[in-house]
Amino acid sequence: MAVRGPRLRIVPAVGRLIVIEGLDGAGKRTLVDGLTARLRERGRSVAHAAFPRYTADVHAELVAEALHGEHGDLGASVHGMAVLYALDRRGAADDLRADLAAHDVVLLDRYVASNAAYGAARLGQDVDGDFVRWVRELEVERFGLPRPDLQLLLQVPADVAAGRAEHRERTETRRRDRFESDSSLQQRCAELYARLAETGWWSPWLVVDGSARPDHEALAGRVLG
Ligand SMILES: Nc1ncnc2c1ncn2[C@@H]1O[C@H](COP(=O)(O)OP(=O)(O)OP(=O)(O)O)[C@@H](O)[C@H]1O
Ligand SMILES: Cc1cn([C@H]2C[C@H](O)[C@@H](COP(=O)(O)O)O2)c(=O)[nH]c1=O
């Protein structure tokens, strides 16, 4: 008679998926860089990416062009633009899963909530409106994108974010696009982001005051859970 020991289940290690969200110029990229450095100092392996993937995906390339006035009325179509952003992420999903299997932490500069916030803000809808529901159906239910462990909202007043985006335009010769130059859109986005965080849209949120320099050490602790 075969004697069996306790069954061992091999569970593949899965890293934590952390998303940084916020207005244009809020300081997301700067925070991703700071957090990556701090987590690596703590001995964790970190992968990071930013959406849209302008140089890696044709949908993101089209987004950039439409945001600078090309492709006729494409930029004016909220759903059309949102589908392009979503297809960029769908194309990245396998790499994202591979990164999650290989690293302790995967940090993303923007993800699905950017589509929800900007689209709903452009349409004048709230978080419980049709647009946010549609984004969820498309990207979460239909495309099956990985769910973030934490969505971190880097919250700064819209005028501060605009000032930072202007500063970056001068120092890095990066032209501001249609969304970045639209102050009332940024104001509405700030409200949408606050509501997404408040309602815990899709996964847990943490709101971080981005007016001053964020405390990377404390945030690294929150990121690791
Ligand atoms: N805490 C901060 N205080 C002051 N300036 C900051 C801070 N964080 C970032 N900046 C500066 O603000 C500008 C915008 O920062 P960054 O590129 O990180 O923003 P972003 O949110 O990634 O922007 P976008 O979404 O438009 O790509 C940069 O010039 C950056 O050096
Ligand atoms: C990923 C994503 C982005 N947006 C918006 C947000 C910005 O205004 C622009 C470009 O993004 P960047 O960070 O300035 O490069 O696009 C969006 O509406 N939906 C999305 O999914």
Keywords, please?
225 residues; 51% helix; nucleotide biosynthesis; 12% strand; alpha/beta; Rossmann fold; binds adenosine-5'-triphosphate; 5 strands; 8 helices; Thymidylate kinase; binds the ligand Cc1cn([C@H]2C[C@H](O)[C@@H](COP(=O)(O)O)O2)c(=O)[nH]c1=O; five-stranded parallel β-sheet
Describe it for me?
The chain contains eight helices and five strands, in the order βαβααβααβααβα. The chain has a single domain, classed as Rossmann fold (3-Layer(aba) Sandwich), CATH 3.40.50. It is 51% helix and 12% strand. Helix 1 packs across helix 8 and helix 2 packs across helix 3. Bound molecules: adenosine-5'-triphosphate and ligand LXEULUCI. The site of adenosine-5'-triphosphate has 14 residues, from helix 1 and helix 6. Pfam families: Thymidylate_kin (PF02223). Phosphorylation of dTMP to form dTDP in both de novo and salvage pathways of dTTP synthesis.
Secondary structure layout:
Layout: E1 16-21, H1 28-41, E2 46-50, H2 58-67, H3 78-102, E3 105-109, H4 112-123, H5 130-142, E4 150-155, H6 158-172, H7 183-198, E5 205-209, H8 216-224
Parallel strand pairs: 1-3, 1-4, 2-3, 4-5
Helix pairs in contact: 1-8, 2-3, 3-4, 4-5, 4-7
The chain binds adenosine-5'-triphosphate and ligand LXEULUCI.
Residues 24, 51-52, 85, 110, 114-115, 118, 179-180 line the site of the ligand Cc1cn([C@H]2C[C@H](O)[C@@H](COP(=O)(O)O)O2)c(=O)[nH]c1=O.
Name the bound molecules. adenosine-5'-triphosphate, ligand LXEULUCI
Order of helices and strands, N to C? EHEHHEHHEHHEH
Structural class: alpha/beta
**Count of individual beta strands:** 5
> What's the alpha carbon Rg, rounded to whole Å?
19 Å
CATH fold label? Rossmann fold
| CATH hierarchy, class | Alpha Beta
Low-pLDDT stretches are none
Which CATH architecture is right?
Answer: 3-Layer(aba) Sandwich
Into which percentage range does the β-strand content fall? Answer: 5-15%
Task: Tell me the distance between the termini.
Answer: 46 Å
Largest sheet, strands/sense/barrel: 5 strands, parallel
State the shape: globular
**CATH superfamily membership, which one?**
P-loop containing nucleotide triphosphate hydrolases
Catalytic activity: dTMP + ATP = dTDP + ADP
Pfam families: Thymidylate_kin (PF02223)
Family: Belongs to the thymidylate kinase family.
GO molecular function: kinase activity
